[in-house]
Specification:
This protein has eight helices and 13 strands. The chain is globular. Helix 5 runs parallel beside helix 6, helix 5 packs across helix 7 and helix 6 crosses helix 7. With 282 residues, it is α+β, with helices and mostly antiparallel strands. A hairpin with a 2-residue loop joins strand 5 and strand 6.
């Protein structure tokens, strides 16, 4: 369906991983060996938390967004922006989906200081769209600008407490999507990998009702990689806290990426990774 990447660590030019890596996100937009679709050319997005004022306020500033319905490989603005900005936490996403192809359907989605993106889908979304959309809090409903299942699911999770407890909010939203889907006779309503951030932490979720979710990986600690590959010049670009969570590995170095288990939340912050169970299959 799509491919995505989340970075946390020392401030970095996003181009280092979305453009310059051997199997970068833009490369995956043209050739995605592990994706449901090989080509992901129906738009892209970059969401980033600026460095400025982070130290002064003690709180991360709200995220900025650049989204386009151009194919990622064909957008000069993406190359310019990603090489100029630096960010300690950013999301990037390339989209493969049916129509409509429009800017408001490109990920990531934003609410206040939160970012959200998704690879996968809610099965037969048009069948359940009305019920799920009406379950969104009326104060949040005007923020839904596009037509995607992902945007509705994000606002449903916000309605169900994501800002207080991201894992609990996502659990509640996905359970509600499954409940409504099952009421409409849909056997496996939810499929995907999901990423949420408040600017300090990333919660990356791998879950599907069928128990066969889209691929998801996280990088090995940089210090470990440097010991494994002392001659790899490329690793010098990254600080010791640099980590990524990705739909598929950015290079072919053995041991550089580890798969996230099924029905698991990978929590990533400045201290590194930890896992929590997410949901039992419905």
């Amino acid at each position: 369906m799509c491919r995505w990447l989340a970075y946390v660590g020392e401030p970095l030019h996003p181009s280092e991983v979305i453009l310059d890596a051997r199997h970068s996100l833009v490369a995956q937009s043209l050739d995605s060996p592990l994706g449901a679709e090989t080509v992901n050319g129906d738009g892209f997005g970059l969401g980033w938390y600026p460095v400025s004022n982070r130290e002064d306020s003690g709180q991360p500033p709200g995220p900025a967004l650049f989204r386009s319905m151009e194919p990622a490989w064909n957008d000069l603005n993406l190359r310019e922006i990603s090489r100029m900005i630096r960010s300690p936490l950013f999301f990037s996403h390339v989209r493969a989906a049916g129509p409509p192809v429009q800017q408001t359907n490109c990920h990531p989605f934003r609410h206040a200081n939160w970012l959200f993106m998704h690879n996968g889908g809610l099965t037969d979304f048009l069948t359940v769209k009305r019920d799920l959309t009406l379950a969104v809090d009326p104060s949040l409903y005007p923020e839904i600008q596009g037509t995607t299942d992902s945007e509705v699911l994000f606002h449903l999770a916000l309605t169900l407490g994501l800002q207080d407890d991201p894992i609990a909010g996502m659990r509640a939203a996905i359970r509600e999507a499954e409940r409504v889907g099952h009421e409409h006779g849909i056997r496996f309503p939810v499929q995907g990998t999901f990423a949420v951030s408040d600017g300090a932490t990333v919660w990356a979720i791998r879950y599907s009702t069928a128990g066969r979710s889209r691929s998801l990986f996280h990088s090995t600690d940089i210090e470990t990689l440097r010991r494994m590959y002392p001659d790899a010049e490329r690793l010098r670009v990254f600080g010791r806290r640099a980590h990524v969570i990705v739909s598929e590995p950015l290079n072919d170095l053995p041991g550089a990426f580890e798969g996230v288990p099924e029905s698991t939340v990978s929590i990533l912050d400045e201290a590194g990774y930890r896992y929590e169970p997410f949901l039992e299959a419905a």
